[in-house]
Amino acid sequence: MTSVPLSEEVENRIQATFSGEVARESARSMLLEYPTEPWHGEVKRVRIGILRICQGNLERMRRLVDIAQKDYRDLLMLAEYLPADSSKPLSLRNARRKTPDE
């Protein structure tokens, strides 16, 4: 599958989330890894969700991209249905869930 370019909104959020250019370039590179499968949907929405949850942490972003690649709906649930100001850590327990092709 060909890479889907980053939207202007996603690029603006990268700028707002990461302070250094090296970190921003790493974030761009990771976000461009989604989508990889024809059934991956909601590209812009998933990328924005990843940026919202990662809170500027590249290791967390890596895990979130992996979750999105397995089942992007899990990522959307984390990003959109948990309170943004929640003091509880996000659960990434679904990271090992199988994809529809497995």
Describe the structure concisely.
The protein has 102 residues and is mainly alpha-helical. It is 55% helix and 0% strand. The longest helix has 13 residues.
Descriptive notes:
There is one protein chain. The protein is mainly α and 102 residues long. It has one domain (8-81). Helix content is 55%, strand content 0%. Mean pLDDT is 85; it is low at 92-96.
How far from one another are the termini? 18 Å
Which ranges are low-confidence, i.e. pLDDT below 50, for 5 or more consecutive residues?
A: 92-96
Mean pLDDT: 85
From the alpha carbons, calculate the radius of gyration and give it in angstroms: 13 Å
For the sheet with most strands, the description reads: none
Number of strands: 0
Number of helices: 5
Structure class: mainly alpha
Distinctive features:
102 residues, mainly alpha, 55% helix
Please specify the SSE layout and strand pairing:
Elements: H1 8-17, H2 21-31, H3 43-54, H4 58-70, H5 72-81
